[in-house]
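name: query_chain
kind: protein
chains: 1
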Amino acid sequence: MTHLKINIVILISWVIFLISLTQDCVNYQYFGSIHYPSYLAFLLGWTYFDGFRWEGFVWVANLLYFLGIVLTIKRNYKAVFAFIISSFLAISFMLFDNITITKSGRIAPIIELESGYFLWLISILFLTFSSLYLKVNTEKQCVV
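structure:
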C-alpha cells in the first residue's frame, strides 16, 4: 500500500511541476517589464552555474528533485535529504533582488515572482513533506 501512496505522491508532484513549466516564473525590469517563461528557466538555468551567479545554485534544486524521485522509486529513504536540500535551494530564490539575464553578467531587478515559480516550489515542497510523512509513517509501522 505504501508503494501505491509513493507513486501517487510522485504523480501529483510531477503534474504540478509540468504545469509550472507552462507559466511565467519571474517578472523583471530590463528596458521594460519582461515576463520570463518557466520552461526557459528550466532549460537554460544551468548555464548560469559558473561559480559567480547564484541563480545556478538555485537550479541545482531541479537535479536534487529528480535525484530524490529516483531514490524514492528505488525505496531508498535517503531521498528525503535530497528533497530537503532542494526545498531550501528553491526557497532561497525568494531572497534575490536581482537576476542575471545575460551570460555577460548583466543583471536586472526582479519585479515579482510569478505563478510558475510558486508552482515549481509547491511541487518540490509537496514531495518533500509527503516523503517525510511517509518515512515517519513507515518507521512507526515497522516499530509496532
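note: The first helix runs from residue 2 to 20.
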